[in-house]
Write a structure and sequence with these properties.
By secondary structure, the chain is mainly alpha-helical. The chain is built from 4 helices and no strands. Helix 1 packs across helix 3 and helix 2 crosses helix 3.
Length: 85
């Protein structure tokens, strides 16, 4: 089994959500898409946010960044707000 699991990642990503609010990530699909987008950013030249990851694959780095909370997933509403600013 791979670590961290999907359910562990979803818990970490949604940990900052206030009670009563809609979770940022609601499915495995959402977490996979977020990790893939971050992996493409790393492949494109973005600096990894975790130290000592030079021998790891971009997707492994992206998953670890999400798990450690170094990279945040924005909801669609938050992403629209940032684009407007």
């Amino acid at each position: 089994m791979l670590r961290p699991s999907y359910s562990d990642l979803i818990k970490v990503v949604n940990s900052g959500v206030e009670p009563g609010e809609q979770p940022v990530v609601q499915s495995r699909y959402s977490i996979v898409i977020a990790a893939a987008k971050r992996a493409r950013q790393i492949i494109g030249g973005a600096e990894p946010e975790i130290p000592g990851c030079y021998n790891k694959k971009p997707l492994s780095i992206a998953v670890e960044e999400l798990y450690q909370g170094k990279v945040k997933i924005l909801s669609e509403a938050d992403a629209t707000e940032e684009e407007d600013n």
